[in-house]
């Protein structure tokens, strides 16, 4: 697909996703059974995730389907959904390993927060989303539209909520086009820096906040960045300029455009679903939810952040967060406070297996 075609595909409206559902994939029962078999054969509760390699898993015909979904999310519409991961056959830890195994094929997993974890269990841990160190994935709160901290994010659903937890997506490429048409004055503001808090997860060589425009371009492609919670949180950090009235209006209008019914696609993830986003062109959010009482039934997704080997060049303004804008480099993520030698060795090994550079 040419860059122009990709940009047009990524500027979808709800009607586009409904009319052409080629972004939704399904695994056959046989393919799902093989996934379950390879994960159960490899699973060892004593073995750290970093010790598994691609060769430990034969994903079989499922990989072709998942690879096509990753391609659609990365270089097509910016979003894809795969139905039919073998949820019923696998324990929570085995399902987590299945998500990890998919990640080993798909790219270099990126750390996701203060604990430098490379896979996150998305569940309600009672965290206050609006606190200075709050993160949405550990709360049951309604989330603002936002991007995650890597080129690609995958969410594998193990349990759905008792009620709520609806997943919403909206195209940032479309949102920018609408903003340009309706409010060119605010589009100009959106192309200038906003300040985002690192939510107290910064590593030693990073400040507590960083500046980044909400939209920028590289090699003819548009890149979007948005996270209201982090922008508001940064307002409490010394040294961050106060938001101007025009910036506040830009934030409100963008959120309003993203949530228009014709722009915001909604879905409920079911157990065994794998949702994939390209964070540069797709924003996501979810509604608040209520859990079942029994711990083993509570809403649970496993999230990976990935740097794929076939990534494209990022805008220079993305460097501060991503630490590299080079195509095909290991970039993005939140290295956090425990990014140690074991993390670095894993990244170097996986990068070399995929022919990727780690030199920024
Ligand atoms: Fe997210």
Word description of this protein:
This protein is an alpha+beta fold. It has a single domain, classed as Double-stranded beta-helix. The protein has 11 helices and 16 strands. The strands form 5 sheets. Strands 1, 2, 3, 4, 5, 13 and 16 form a 7-stranded mixed β-sheet that branches. The protein has a 3-stranded antiparallel β-sheet with strand order 12-7-14. A two-stranded antiparallel sheet has the order 6-15. A hairpin with a 2-residue loop joins strand 10 and strand 11. The radius of gyration is 19 Å and the shape is globular. Fe (ii) ion (FE2) binds next to loops.
Topology:
Blueprint: H1 3-10, H2 14-19, E1 24-26, H3 29-42, H4 62-75, E2 79-83, H5 92-106, E3 108-109, E4 120-122, E5 152-159, E6 163-164, E7 167-171, H6 172-182, H7 184-190, E8 193-197, E9 209-213, E10 215-218, E11 221-224, H8 228-234, H9 245-258, E12 265-267, E13 274-278, E14 282-286, E15 289-290, E16 300-307, H10 319-322, H11 341-353
Parallel strand pairs: 1-2
Antiparallel strand pairs: 2-13, 3-16, 4-16, 5-13, 5-16, 6-15, 7-12, 7-14, 8-9, 10-11
Name its key features:
single chain; 360 residues; alpha+beta; Double-stranded beta-helix; three-stranded antiparallel beta sheet; 31% helix; 19% strand; globular; binds fe (ii) ion
């Amino acid at each position: 697909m040419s860059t122009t075609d990709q940009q047009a595909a990524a500027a979808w409206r709800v009607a586009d996703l409904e009319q052409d559902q080629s972004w939704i994939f399904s695994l056959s029962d046989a393919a799902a059974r093989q996934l379950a078999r390879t994960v159960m054969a490899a699973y060892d509760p004593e073995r750290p995730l970093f010790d598994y390699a691609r060769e430990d898993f034969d994903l079989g015909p499922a990989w072709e389907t998942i690879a096509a979904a990753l391609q659609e999310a990365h270089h097509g519409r910016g979003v894809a959904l795969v139905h039919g991961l073998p949820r019923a056959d696998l324990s929570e830890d085995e399902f987590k390993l299945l998500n990890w195994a998919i990640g080993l094929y798909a790219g270099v997993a990126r750390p996701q927060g203060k604990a430098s974890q490379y896979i996150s269990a998305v569940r309600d841990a009672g965290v206050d989303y609006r606190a200075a160190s709050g993160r949405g994935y550990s709360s049951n709160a309604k989330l603002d539209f936002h991007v995650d901290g890597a080129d690609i994010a995958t969410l594998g659903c193990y349990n759905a909520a008792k009620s709520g937890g609806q997943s919403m997506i909206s195209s940032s490429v479309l949102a920018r086009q609408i903003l340009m048409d309706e409010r060119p004055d605010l589009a100009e503001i959106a192309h200038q820096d906003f300040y985002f808090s690192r939510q107290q997860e910064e590593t030693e060589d990073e400040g507590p906040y960083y500046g980044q425009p909400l939209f920028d371009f590289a090699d003819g492609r548009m890149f979007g960045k948005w996270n209201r919670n982090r922008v508001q949180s940064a307002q409490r950090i010394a040294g961050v300029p106060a938001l101007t009235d025009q910036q506040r209006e830009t934030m409100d209008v963008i959120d309003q455009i993203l949530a228009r019914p014709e722009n915001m696609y909604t879905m409920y993830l079911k157990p065994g679903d794998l949702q994939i986003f390209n964070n540069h062109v797709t924003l996501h959010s979810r509604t608040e939810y209520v859990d079942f009482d029994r711990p083993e039934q509570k809403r649970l997704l496993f999230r990976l952040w990935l740097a794929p080997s076939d990534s494209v060049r990022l805008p220079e303004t993305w460097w501060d967060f991503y630490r590299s804008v080079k195509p095909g480099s290991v970039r993005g993520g939140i290295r956090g406070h425990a990014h140690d030698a074991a993390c670095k060795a894993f990244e170097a090994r996986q990068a070399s297996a995929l022919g990727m550079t780690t030199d920024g």
